[in-house]
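**User:**
Make up any protein.

**Assistant:**
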Amino acid sequence: MKVIQTALPEVLILEPKVFGDDRGFFYESFNARVFAEATGLKREFVQDNHSRSVKNVLRGLHYQIQHPQGKLVRVSVGEVFDVAVDIRKSSPNFGKWVGVTLSADNKRQLWVPEGFAHGFVVTSDYAEFLYKTTDYYSPAYERSLLWSDPSIAIQWPGTGFFQLSEKDATAVDLKQAELFQ
């Protein structure tokens, strides 16, 4: 596994070793020992999630104020632009974001640590998005940060017309959000 640093040191791009020939391909999408050795992180993943969305669906920016989740995310079908935002008030990178294209073709994964808001927009006709989490989903503690907050200024690809859930459309900006210390 190849680990690629991003502009936010805790957010990592992971490239698996892919073995392919004219029959297709094979790769380990997750191996706890390899993940720990390659990243220096020891995490227990307790939940796997799988979503399917059509083009221009934007999901996020989500986080939990208690029981924060680290997420190891990837795309099995299609392509997304995936974003992590540092929302730890004590961090020197507070309010900064990083975005990465994840696709079935590039097979990249993104490690989004606890203390970061996370979201993505589908850039292909549709995409299937898979992620492992380090803690269970806790609806009472889930929060959404406004995807278009000008103080963060994420440069989302596309026209800017996105399909949003009601929760994401009415999310708060960084100044109003409940955050981590």
The chain has a mean pLDDT of 96. The longest helix spans residues 32-39.
